[in-house]
Each structure stands twice: as C-alpha cells, then as structure tokens.
Amino acid sequence: MAASEDTVAPSRLDFDAVVVGGGPSGLVAARELATAGARVALIEENSELGGQYYKRRRGQVLAQYGDYRPDGTSLIAQVRHAGVEVFTNRLVWGTSTDRSLLTTSTTSPDAVRFSARAIVVAAGATEHVVPFPGWQLPGVMTPGHAMHLATTDAVRVGNRVLLAGSGPFLLPVACALLASGTEVAAVVEAGRPLRPSLRAAGSLRHPGMLADLARYLTILAKHRVPIIQGARVHEALAQGNGHLGAVAITHGQVTRTFEVDTLATAFGFRPATELLQLLEVDCTVDATLGVPLPVTDAHGATSVPGVYAVGESRGIAGNKAARVRGWLAAAAIRDRLGLPTPSAQQMRAHLRRSARLDAFATLSSELYAHDRRALLQMPDHTMVCRCESVTAGEIRAAARLGWNDRNSVKGATRAGMGLCQGRECAATVSGLVSACTGEPVGCQPARMPVKPIPVSAAMALEEEIA
Amino acid sequence: MTTTDIVVIGGGILGASTAYQLARAGHRVTVLERGAPNREGSGTTAGNLHIQGIHTRRPGQAVAADNLRFLPLQRTASTLWSQLPDELDADLELTRNGGFMVAETPEQVQELHQKFDLETQLGLTCEIVSGDEARRRMPALSETVIAAEWCAEDGYANPLLVTPAYLGAARRYGAQVEAFSPVTGIEHDGGAYVVRSGHREWSAGVVIDTAGPWIADVAALAGIRLDMSPVAIQMHITTRMPLGTLTCLVQHIGAGMSVKQVGAGNILIGGGWPAEAFRAHGRSRVATDSISGNLHQAAAVLPLLRDLRLLRTWAGPLAATPDEMPVIGEVPSSPGFFVAGGTYAFTLAPLWGLVLRDLVEGNSPLEPVADLGVDRLVLDAVAHQR
Ligand SMILES: Cc1cc2nc3c(=O)[nH]c(=O)nc-3n(C[C@H](O)[C@H](O)[C@H](O)COP(=O)(O)OP(=O)(O)OC[C@H]3O[C@@H](n4cnc5c(N)ncnc54)[C@H](O)[C@@H]3O)c2cc1C
C-alpha cells in the first residue's frame, strides 16, 4: 500500500488541511478533519504511519510476535477509512514565503509543494541526549532506540543494560527490556521523583498515571533492578574491542561502576520545531532544554493564522496528550474551514482533559527536576558535536572569547553545522554557551533543508515551473 | 566617556581588517559591533578570492560592474592574501588552487577573450583553454563547456576564520573590541566625534563606518545621507565529499555561479542569487526559486552536483551601491568620517584595511581610490550642487 503513496505526479497539491507527521497527534488531527469532510493530506517521512509511539511491526516480526500496540493499528485504519490522502516516504524539508510546504520523496527525488488553508505540525520530538565522555562508543544508545529494538523489532538489546538519564520514560523502557529477556543492571535517574514530597502528592490527582508507575515499579522490584536516584553517568568505558564495557556513575560524592555491554541514556525529549520555525511562528525559548517552543492557544493555534502545533511539537507531554491536542487542533480548524464542529460538551471535555495532561506533564517535569548545570560540566575533551567533531572545550573557549553569542559560537566552532543540523548537539551547545557567558540560553535557528535532501530534489522545484 | 583615536563601527571583515591595520600602526582603536562580530556579510559570504576579472552581473543586478576597474585592486589584494596567514598567525584555510571561468556559447567565449586581453594588459597571468583541455584538467566539467579561462591565483579562505583572526590580531595590538554595542548616535562637538551606544560614549577624532548593509544607517546617525541599499543573496552547501571531488573554483562568464569544495569537504554553491527581501533584523529568508535556479545553473556545468545531498542554505546581506562599485574614502563634508563598503569586500578586505590606514594618516594609499570615493553616493551633497 505504501508504494503508490511514494510517487506523486502533480508538483503542486492543494488541500484544506495538511498534517505533517503521522504519529498519534497527526493521526487524530487528520482523522477528525477528514471525518468532518475536509480534504486532508497527511505527510510522513517514514514508510509507515504511526510515529515513534505507534511504530509498526512488519514482515516476519509481525507474523511471529503479532501486532504491537493494536490501538495504533486501529487509529491508522480509521485515518485511511476517513479518506485522508496519505503520503508516506515524503519529507517536508522547507517552506516558501507563500507558506507552501516543500517536500520530496525519500525514495526517488522529486519536488511537490503542498499548500493548504491549515497546516498542522505534528513533527514529534527528539530524545534529549547530553554528552559525556564515551557516549559515542558502540553499545551506547537512547532509551527510545532500545525500546524500539525490544518491542517493535523484538530483538535483544544487549546482555546487560544500564538505563540512565532522567524522566518517566526510563521505567517503561526498563520493563520492556526485562520482558525481552535482557538483564537490566540499574536505572540511574538524575532526579529524585520517588521520594515523598508535596509535589509527589500532586500526582494523586492523576490516578491513571500512578497506576502505570506502580506497575513499572513492581516489575522492577520483582527483577531486583535498583533505581538509583540523584545520580548520573559520568563516563562510559570501552572494552578491549572498543565496545562499551562499563559505565561509571556519580552518586553524590561516590563513584560506582557497572559492567554492562549496553547503556541507554537520555534526559527525556525535546520538541521538534524546525518546521514551525521556518513557518515563522512566535516561539519562546525553553530555558532548561535550550530549544524554541511555539506559543499556542489551547487548540494549538500559533501566532501565524492557519498554522497549528500539536503533539510533542507543541511541548513535551506524552502520547495521551498528543492525541487530545490533535483532536483540539482539528476542532479549531473545522471551525475555520466552516465545517461541522464538535459539540460544546465534547469540546469542554477535551479542553479539560488536555489541561489535566499538561498539568501532569508540568508536575512530572517538576518531580524529575535535576541539576542540569551539573550535566553541562562534562570535561573539556568530551565530544559534543559528533558530525563536525567539536569538543566541549572548544565550545567553551569560543564562548569565553568575549565577543561570541550562541550563534557565533556555531560559526566559530562548526558545532551544529554537520549532517544532523544540530538536532543532536544544539541544545547542549546552547547550555554550554549560556553557562560560560551567563547569558540566557539561546537556540540554533532552523535552516532549510530541515534534513539533507538530494540536490536533484531541490532542482526539481524548477522543472515544475518550466 | 572613553577617549580614543579611532572608532570603527561594524565588526565584519572590513572593520576587522581596518582595526588591525590601524592598531598595528600604533593608533588607539575601538571596534563597536552591534551583535557578535562576523555574523553578517562576512560570516555568510562565499569566501571566494576573486582575482581574475569578475563576472559583471549578479542575477537581478541592474547595472553591470566595471570589471576593468577592479583588476588592479584584485591583483594587489591577491598578494596581500598570500601573506595573511603568517601575518595574522592564524589558519585561514587559505587555498589558492586557481579557478576556471567557463563559457558555454560562442558569445561567452568572445567575452572571455575580451576579459583575457584586459587582464593581460594589466599584467595578470591568465590562460584560455578549450573545453576539452578544461575537462582534462577538471573532469567534473560538463560537455557544454566550450572554453574556460584559468587563473592560478583564484582561491578561497574560510570566512568563519578570517574576521575572528583579524580581530584577534587587532586585539593583540591593543584594539578594543566591543561586541553587542550597537551605535545609536554620532555627534560632532567641534573637535571630535562622540559615538554613543546606549548610555556609553566614545570620543574620537576619526570614525570609520564599515557597517556593511547598515552603512547608510550609521552614516545617517552622523547626518550623512548615502545612496546605498542593502540586498540579501543566498548560498547552498552540500554534505561532505571526499577531498578532490572538485579541484578548484568554478565560475561562469554569463551567469551567476561560483562552486568550490571547501576544506571540510562540503561543496559550496553560490553566485549572487537573490534571497527574499533584506531584513534589517534577523536573517533574511532563502528564496525557493533561487535555490533551484542556482542549483540548475551549477549542475549544468558540474553534473556531479546532481547526485550530492544539499545540507543547508542561508541568506547573507550585502551593501549595494547604485553603480555596483566599491565605496571607500572620507566624507567630504565630514572630515574624519570615513566609509568603506560595497561589492567584493571579502576579496578586497586586506587591501581596504591598508588603504583606510593610509587615508586616515593622510598618506597616499597603496592603490589610488579617489574615483571610488564617497562623493558619488552622498545624496545631500548631490542636491546642494544643483
Ligand atoms: C552570500 C554572499 C556571498 C558573497 N560572496 C563573496 C565572495 O565570494 N567574494 C567576495 O569578495 N565577496 C563576497 N561577498 C561580499 C562580501 O562578503 C561582503 O561584501 C563583505 O563580507 C562585507 O564586509 P563588511 O565588513 O563590509 O560588512 P559585514 O560583514 O556585513 O559587517 C558589517 C557589520 O556592521 C555591524 N553593524 C551594523 N550596524 C551597526 C551599528 N549601528 N553599530 C555597530 N555595528 C553595526 C553589523 O552587525 C555587521 O557585523 C558575498 C556576500 C554575500 C552576502
């Protein structure tokens, strides 16, 4: 089914609404819009809909292990049934001043511009990795990747895994790894979420979430997996063969070493906002993450009329919030397009649920609060920008020169200029510069193309005019 | 109020090279830069060292530049560039692999020959080769190239390194570099200029306006109206390729195009294609049509580009004069107020720094520049004469 979706002959397509990103929020937004009678395009870079959360199993794995997260399968089926025009294997790499989206097929370079009265950005999030010495070793990965391997691909991630970083996501990953037969040495959490506190008491208002937590903790206790709070990785060490062999963590004044062959680490997620930046919506800077965050109303409407941010692109709040946000944006767009809108009662219920989930996300980030400055004190020799081989020391030296700001440090060091366009290191560079200059955290602005594209795909923009 | 000899306004390559020359000559120099240095024209430039006669029209340019007038300036600049890494004691990724300017039509070939004759008269060593010979030397060139002019002195320096190196060297000679200090007012109190940035003030006998695209705005603070307009043009860069993928700079006699491989391996594609409207604050936007236009042009001459990956695009601002020629000199009505800017300022920067030093000191400059003076651009003076 995907094959025919890759190649599109006309080079300009016009819709009532275009949704970018086929994860939970994009799927719900597209379904709600199409059901109401809108002509909707859903563009997804990967070959399958689902995004990170509803990643699809395929082929043998599907046959052997069955469906993974069947609610995703049914959501995707609803989207198709509703008549959404689905464009998979298609990357939105830029925008034009007329607000059309510039896209290319990821399988055979072409150029198709999408224009619409409403654009819904549901581009998801990236895992927030903070470098430490040895993070480039084979055997070090993100929890999201470990999760993907253990669940979607149903493969063993390693023999003995250490999970480290921060955030509620580490616990389900630990459980998924245990379920796949991998030994989990420990969960190393930088915050102290599991101590009784006034804040923790706030979570009593979110019983569903508490039940999840209790379930994870029970599984970890059953497998005798310790959760070490207030600790962080300070170095990953290689074995003779160059592969990860051990991980040293700092816990207060104490250093402990775990012999493991895999380390899965990240400090939660960062919203993907490149496209929103290119559409020039007003953003604020998330000072802890060093990334721009779109300013939106409760429906996800941005400062640019007709442009909406949903899901994690609107700010990190998880899969449940993503679905509600998709629904709310669709409701506003239906109104905008003059299509039937949901009942006032449904609207209120979704707004309430969305507010509650946002409150929970805030509470959770408070619960998991940790000293981010300590994370940025990695030794000077730590590689920060892997694409361009720039170390923390080089970034600090440029920042201390006295005349550089966040953006000129990029120019002076090349940090963030490589293949990943700073997706991996930009937030760390922002934090390092801010720590050196005492200035508020800035951001690396998005540039076109959002991801590298074939030169021939950019050239195809003109063949279309001719 | 801080008293100094010279205030340089603008921390691009012109301000930096001028500050360096003046500080080295023993003057007390303060550079005032609105933001971080090297973020505007000088940090976004293609960084080509254009030594052979230039292609006279950017895409969309109304008036052709007088490329004959440029030649002696380029030749002197070429010599100065060769000495620059030693002089500044810095790695500038200076590469002098030479450059081709290609022709695809008989008319263009004729234009190449005319250019070549002028260059030869002025003592520049160039060479015109057939398409086949050009392809023998650089197999990446397409079959459509029927002749090319070769200049061994053409080259490239990494713009991200040059201006900071100049500023660092200026600082070693005692210059003050004040970043994040936008000039907000300029007054003349009879004896000296008082230059203000917010609540800070500097008093100096000499002010040098090297504010690039904002050159007229800064001059206006001193009551001088200049006929200059900022424009934005754009650049494109591919992902890294093995070194040697392209061996030299490639330009086109009839179209806006400059392509080369830089030290990190990326291939940089430019040619002065217009970006969206110039923005005084923040980056101008890249124009979609110019992306495809520039890439088509470049890939016609270098077909291998089609198979590469486009990594990034950006727009950079440029100060344009109505006659497309550089401007350099003292404002006649405002003694002690100097201006320098205009086209090809990257290539000419080492020269302009020396020339400004000479002009400030009242000496005759290394290259005569009287015809490139400010008079032709001063709007009020033009009005007074009438
Ligand atoms: C995309 C592009 C490609 C180019 N390619 C080439 C090339 O290949 N070869 C070549 O020779 N030339 C090239 N040029 C031209 C050349 O790079 C520029 O002309 C040159 O860098 C300009 O240097 P500058 O110092 O005059 O101005 P800029 O580098 O623009 O510096 C001006 C500075 O003044 C500051 N400023 C402005 N207002 C104020 C104020 N009120 N107070 C204090 N500071 C202020 C600005 O912040 C800025 O830093 C190119 C230009 C562009 C944009």
UniProtKB/TrEMBL annotation, chain A:
Alphabetized UniProt keyword annotations: Oxidoreductase
Known Pfam families for this protein? Answer: Fer2_BFD, Pyr_redox_2
Against InterPro entries, the record matches this protein to: BFD-like_2Fe2S-bd_dom, BFD-like_2Fe2S-bd_dom_sf, FAD/NAD-bd_sf, FAD/NAD-binding_dom, Metab_Enz_Cyan_OpOx_G3PDH, Opine_Oxase_asu/HCN_bsu
Instruction: Give all residue intervals belonging to the FAD/NAD(P)-binding domain.
Output: 16-314
Ranges of residues in domain BFD-like [2Fe-2S]-binding: 383-432
> Per its record, how is this protein called by name?
FAD-dependent oxidoreductase
Automatic annotation (TrEMBL), chain B:
Q: What range(s) does the FAD dependent oxidoreductase domain occupy? A: 5-358
**PANTHER family referenced in this protein's UniProt entry, alphabetically:** FAD-DEPENDENT OXIDOREDUCTASE DOMAIN-CONTAINING PROTEIN 1, SARCOSINE DEHYDROGENASE-RELATED
**Sorted alphabetically, which keywords does the UniProt record give?**
Oxidoreductase
InterPro entries according to UniProt: FAD-dep_OxRdtase, FAD/NAD-bd_sf
Annotated Pfam families:
DAO
Question: What Gene3D superfamilies has UniProt attached to this entry?
Answer: D-Amino Acid Oxidase, subunit A, domain 2, FAD/NAD(P)-binding domain
Name the chain's protein. Answer: FAD-binding oxidoreductase
Record's superkingdom? Bacteria
